[in-house]
Design brief:
alpha/beta, binds pyridoxal-5'-phosphate, 17% strand, Pyridoxal phosphate homeostasis protein, pyridoxal phosphate binding
């Protein structure tokens, strides 16, 4: 069972990265990103011990959720169109892509309970990336401070897909530093204790820089669509 073997290897890498930085490995949660794989493979991940699943499209999420509801925490990691908020917001455990005020407003309107949200930050400034510009994040948090259904549990980013590991590291450090700034605002609905950063190619660096959630697709469950 290769998912199980991948997961063991990833856990070993996480353990080592944590040791280097004097972190507890229990601080790091692995999200298996199942957007490119079947329900069966997602099930294998759960059997291997994975506790969190991530999907980036509403249809993919609903397909997995229908069968695996209760067996894992569900993370919505893709851009969420406002008109689709109602389809997922009361089922997911975490939203990683809060990237605009209109989305926060729609969540406020549609959610029955407080939703754990990560603000998606565009740390690299690439046009192709979604997310709020780093310099606008504190303002954004202030604007939604009275929202009762939006809880800013942390910040999320996607580093650019580049070779230069030290450059990638600077983006993760920037997100960590921004997290500290948000925490210092002391806003009731923005404890901001989590950092969602790191994917198959860069999760080790992300953990060294403070990630508490890593979103791993291809290195863990593979990519059945290619
Ligand atoms: C697809 C995806 C991932 C996982 O990517 P891999 O490189 O396959 O690990 C992580 N985060 C987001 C937001 C994604 O869309």
């Amino acid at each position: 069972m290769t998912v199980k073997r991948n997961y063991e290897e990833i856990k070993e890498t996480i353990r080592n990265a944590c040791q280097r930085r004097n972190r507890q490995e229990t601080e790091v949660n692995v999200i298996a990103v199942t957007k490119y794989v079947s329900l069966k493979t997602a099930q294998e991940a759960i059997e291997a011990g994975v506790k969190h699943l991530g999907e980036n499209r509403v249809e993919g999420f609903l397909e997995k959720f229908e069968t695996l509801n209760g067996k894992a925490k569900f993370h919505f990691i893709g851009t969420l169109q406002s008109r689709k908020v109602k389809d997922v917001i009361n089922e997911i455990d975490y939203l990683h892509s809060l990237d605009r005020l209109s989305l926060a407003k729609e969540i406020e309107k549609r959610a029955e309970n407080e939703v754990n949200c990560f603000i998606q930050v565009n740390v690299s400034g690439e046009d192709s990336k979604h997310g709020i510009a780093p310099e606008d994040v504190k303002d954004f948090v202030e604007k939604i401070k009275d929202y009762s259904k939006v809880k800013v549990v942390g910040l999320m980013t996607m580093a650019p897909n580049i070779e230069d590991k030290e450059k990638i590291r600077t983006y993760f450090r920037d997100l960590k530093s921004l997290q500290m700034d948000v925490q210092a605002l002391n806003i009731r609905n923005a404890p901001c204790l989590e950092l969602s950063m790191g994917m198959s190619n860069d999760y080790e660096i992300a953990i060294e820089e403070g990630a508490t959630f890593v979103r791993i697709g291809s290195a863990l469950v593979g990519n059945e669509t290619i």
